[in-house]
Amino acid sequence: MTGPRTTEAIEKLVADPAAHFSSPGDVLVAPLSLATKRRVLESWEVDARRLEDSASENMAGGERSRLAAVLEARRRLEQTARAT
């Protein structure tokens, strides 16, 4: 993936991270700013939490939640940010 060059491209990444990244960990190595990586992972976390809430109410559509992977990616991102 090459880095997005427009605000519109970044907004598409934030709006639907799963459509642009194979896993939350892929966000960490993408050519994005720290702030954009945070936004993407925060958005992915919201989606994952909604999916888990739906599953707990027996309304899931068969997708598996990636909440644990998203939280791990966010933790690693912040750890890297503090180290620099």
Question: How helical, in percent, are the residues?
Answer: over 70%
> Which oligomeric state applies?
single chain
How large a portion of the residues is in β-strands, by DSSP E?
A: under 5%
Cα(first) to Cα(last) distance is 24 Å
Shape: globular
Low-confidence parts, pLDDT < 50 over ≥5 residues?
Answer: none
Which structural class do you get from the secondary structure elements? mainly alpha
Would you write up a description of this structure?
The structure is a single chain. The chain has 84 residues and is an all-alpha fold. It has one domain (7-83). The chain has helices spanning 7-15, 17-20, 24-29, 34-56, 67-83. Helix 1 runs parallel beside helix 4 and helix 4 packs antiparallel against helix 5. The chain starts with 6 loop residues before the first helix and ends with a helix. The relative contact order is 0.17.
